[in-house]
């Protein structure tokens, strides 16, 4: 191979071309045959790569011919319909560059119906200066958003699937879903706006006789126009929907045509503007005084005309005077006193006789609805005209202001995400998306700025303020400036708006389908299904229905602000997310776009928010409400997607700030509420043994405050880590079932009591710590052969007391109501014996906030738990006391075998339960019984149970009364008898008065200081709560929780 002659030379062996790089061939020797074919292949490969490196005009034209503006996913559906070979499609790599993949699609989507139908009217109404300000604000908003989009595009690998995939995968499902749905609604209403624009062009400028409804009176024009828009809009929408449903390949075939229409229309405007310098087109405007007349209703702009040397009335005279005679009896007074003049509609660049036209267009001329379009500077005599003559003038159909024009114009700068929608087709998305999008925004901004100046300099002000071209014989205003003919703009704008409507109806359903397939919004799941080739049938149907709502509004000026709101919300979310991620220094936020700064995103967000409220504050509130509901709904449903959540750092920063604020001091008594630590017991299979504890916690908290659910697994942490993880997951599942919102913590400890102590000490973080502990009752403690069960309970009570935490012990928890039960009647009884900070008064109120106990009555004051002053201590009291002391002393002093201990426990239990109030055989030196009355005082309720008792006893071997015989008792301290007397008498009163209560709340006495009396303490609690179905033992934490003021 030689570089000079580009020819293959024969050697001893022929060769095979392997590749061609930079005009060099890499060859492999094969056989001698066939070398000529290999030479031809080599030359073709080299020339092809040279064409790729140095593109020619022919290749550019080829790409323009194959240009498509389909969104990501639509192209795949087209190929599936065309039946191309799957293997051939799979081998095709992304090949689009910045021009074809980003720049031209953005250009086509940004230029739209507003440019052709409303920009001239906006310039005439707001004036050149304010129109430039409107364009500047809107273009700056989209430019700043494009910079944020560029930061997202350069933050890692750009996923295929369009802007929704790019944003959601970068910012998380909440922001991604909110942005995606706002973008979807904006695109859907854009389809309605484009269709309404196409219908307006059709019925106003192309085929006015095609109107179905005609005004029946002078003031019925508006309703007839709206009805025509609704009927034709629905027909167009149905037809376009069917086209999209049949196949996107038909939309794709006309993409190049639609792009050509846009470019040719814009070029014709500039050509006409240049031509108007030398030869302005003739579009005369008829003026009556300084008022603009609607030229489509008459031909001659004069009151009279000379025909055959005879002055006759013109059609204009007939319209104002209701007569063909030159009599003035029935003429409009304003018509009589003012002259009819004719001025050029396009005076050129100030070169005409009326050189003040460009200067006049600098300033605003806002009008109210129904006000006549007037020209300043023309002589006019004020006179009260007839109301019937109003349709003969050019009048304003809506009230205009700066804010209204902002809302109407903003849709003409949207469409900046068209390039990112094709991210999967781009050769280098990280380069093409920023460059192509920003270049398209700069190009369109220059076109808008130059168009504003061009319109203000070339076109008369009254013509600019004439929205529908009534003063220039129903010509499209921008078409009057076009060259070579107004029909270039009319036809070009009609096809471009139709194409934009088809593009919107093609892209919006696929965007909804992508959101539905992500399953972040469950009720949209049905819209993820479609035809066999993936065409989103159901999403297309919903899009058509939503677009029909815009069609029924039937006014381009009313639909445009709605469209603006959704796009502004979409851009606001993008800017907000980028700014927050930068400020929070999120580790996964690493944009490589060198011109990005968080201040630009913040400025863009502020500008979007300001534009929303400037254009329409009530639309802005509705759009923000919709976007906020979408965000919170996705957050509430728990979108567990492995996309990463770039905004999670905001929650962490807010939580850190709140925790530091809570550290500043304890909460005021008015703000005190129980922050629960629920201690659960797990069985051998790691299942929650008493799930009703969680039910009780959820009813008490009602979703407010802090709830921590803790449990202890006995063993070594290294060996039981997996078991702890499984237990934690089990508890979380149970919390979800019982609707307990809180945290879970499982501790592995060598002893259960140590683990519970660790939980009480260490749960929570900073000021967000528990102040109350919910502890289950140790059921069956009497029958337990291992005393560690109830000793663990008492030790936990001691730890809670030492930590100054409140303690709640629900007894008979299995009988507590579930969350599905409803108590429509009943009451909660509160037995407030000892002042403990008001816990007993606060808890019933909190329980009644839940729907289970919501209709129960307040506790009666009679049930305050006052102990009756009865000086009689019954024999039953001594019986229970002696039984308790005997059992405790027996187990403490005697080393019984397991069988003997079980027999002894059961025997004592049967005797204590069945013996009733039997008399004792023996003597007891207990002194005067009246001195043993327990007077309850408001003191710290400790029980002093450190008692040493000595006795001897024998068992009777015959007779009907079989029981222990007490031979002697020597009591150094009679507190056990006094305490048991209190428990028995109080239990009698509680059972008598609260036997039908739904729940009984009772003060829980403190544990003994000496561990020798632990079993006596448990017996006292059993006697105190005997015969009650549901009891909640409450022990205060040593601080006031209610005040006399609240």
TrEMBL record:
InterPro entries the record matches: AA-permease/SLC12A_dom (IPR004841), KCL_cotranspt (IPR000076), SLC12_C (IPR018491), SLC12A_fam (IPR004842)
Catalytic reactions on record: K(+)(in) + chloride(in) = K(+)(out) + chloride(out)
Domain of life: Eukaryota
Subcellular location as annotated: Cell membrane
Keywords, alphabetical: Cell membrane, Chloride, Glycoprotein, Ion transport, Membrane, Phosphoprotein, Potassium, Potassium transport, Symport, Transmembrane, Transmembrane helix, Transport
UniProt topology in membrane: Multi-pass membrane protein
Keyword field contains DNA repair: no
Main localization, broad class: membrane
SLC12A transporter C-terminal domain boundaries: 691-807, 979-1046
Segments forming domain Amino acid permease/ SLC12A: 102-278, 400-677
Any Pfam family matching the protein: SLC12
Protein family according to the UniProt entry: Belongs to the SLC12A transporter family. K/Cl co-transporter subfamily.
Protein name: Solute carrier family 12 member 4
Record organism: Canis lupus dingo
Organism placement in taxonomy: Eukaryota, Metazoa, Chordata, Craniata, Vertebrata
Gene: SLC12A4
